[in-house]
Amino acid sequence: MLNPRTLQILQLLRHRPFVCAGIFLVAIIFLWKAGPHEYLPKSFTGDQFAFPTNTPTKVWDQRGEHVKAAFLHAYHGYEQNAAPHDELTPLSSGFSDEFNGWGVTTVDSLDTMLLMKLDGEYSRALKLVSEMHFLMPSSEFAPFFETVIRYLGGLLSGYAISKDQVLLARAEELADKLDPVFDKYGGMFPVFGVNTDSKEVVGPKIGALAEMASLQVEYLYLAKATGEKRYFDRANNVMSTLASADLHKTGGMMPIAWNLTSGVPFDSHLSVGARADSAHEYLLKQYLLTAQSNKKSLEMYIRATTHILTTMLYVSPTRHLLYVTDTSTATFTHAGRPTHKMEHLSCFLPGLLALGAHTLPLDDPAALGLDLHALGADMGWAARGYETLARQPSLREIHLWAAAGLADTCYLLYADQPTGLAPDEVIFKVQGDARYGLKDGKWMEGGGRRWIDEVEAWRVASTGSGTWKGRRLPPGVGEDAKPMVYTELERTRGTGRGRDYGGRKTDYPLRPETIESLYIMWRVTKETRWREMGWRIFEAIERETRTPIGYASLKTVEISPGIKTDSMPSYFLSETLKYLYLMFIDEEPFPLDAWVFNTEAHPLPIFSWDQAEKERFGIA
User: What disulfide bonds does the UniProt entry report for this chain (predicted)?
Assistant: First the structure.
């Protein structure tokens, strides 16, 4: 005879289907409760693009004060726990010395303190700078690029705003200690780094574009401030070498890798992201800084942006997001294959395009001494891009459309995440990729829909029929795409709702590029939605990254609360918070037609060369 326990088990097995169904139902309820609600940020309520249009000035003033308080929180944490070292480690209450150990956060923050009128902090920082030395152990080397944009740029900007002579003196001293980087290969380009004590230099013969061609803004202003020809020569030699290089293979745009011994491109990999970004940025900014006196840098900027607009911008298949990617394996007959990778670093581009549209008469190239047809005449296959832009009713409009579409995408990369903060790199999916629920379609080599082709199709459809008929703006612009915040379950099992991209590097190192572009878009267009986007990003920074002594980078943006890492980069104080503050205050301390920001957000005043300087420096 069966015992009672066995009978009980058999009785349960008779009803197994009902038991399993019950367990499944309980599991579903549990996942529903723990899934979406657990991962949605507390402040995410409603449509993330439903921005108010009439936020009072008083509220914006208060928001500016919130950013100032954030800066004070971060800088005081650095002062009390890390100074005079380089950067605060905000989780361990320690420091790191990744940038020469001279106190980079102090120097990077000088102009932000002056902007925010933080007299006490600035006085203490000025004392540290006056006592700062630029020496290092024999085994270490100062990276030229980072030292120029952070230290030299910070010192020069602080001097430009305050006129404190000690800052200019330290800037000149630093530039002289960096000078050996130009000696190894005949002064064409700087090598990677130098020991500022022994003068020994280090670096490969193949250099990265951004590292060797992002000094013109700082060195030209230093030449103006000191009257010293040697600083002008350093910037001019780099620019002259770039201008004389044969760029036919890359459509007139500078590739990433260069041979430092010969001064010619080493490959045909084109990008506006890592290792390239600031070199393209400085083509325009060098021209603007010197009161629009260097026509060659302007010509190179127009060539670069023409290539970007006609070959490197794509529209995603379902949400129609406009994005910029890099291309490789270009030939004399083909633009190269897109990778469809988009970096957070590339989100400076919409701001740059908007700045160019704001400061240059793009609809009257003749006023700039330029002819698009002539620029493209000797560019081979790339000439088609110049012809395409020349056909457009307004070149300025094209630049602003691209700026707006890219800025929207850069913001959506924030709004799509549970943390409200953007991943460092994403990969956009192309049509026909069944893994992401996309249908087959007609594609170019490399996959994807080139934006300029869609603009052309839209123009045809606007007067006839076609996919884009009835649209007021071209594809990728004004899409009103809604944020798509994935739950953890959706993220781990696949895209779930067709977001059009996947995370490649999901960390958030407190980067400024999107905020920089939102600031410039606000100043250029006066559309308040750009400001509102900036405010939502700041709220996310406060919610997800704040620590008791500062702010911390995130390991991943895909889980909220964010997983913090022990790093607070100096650029968080020099760029991220500065651009947020400038976006929220009503006054414009650094008008875009009077000041130029270096790539580390250090503002320098626009100037003209006087006749004596032209003669001394050999300026034609």
Answer: 347-410
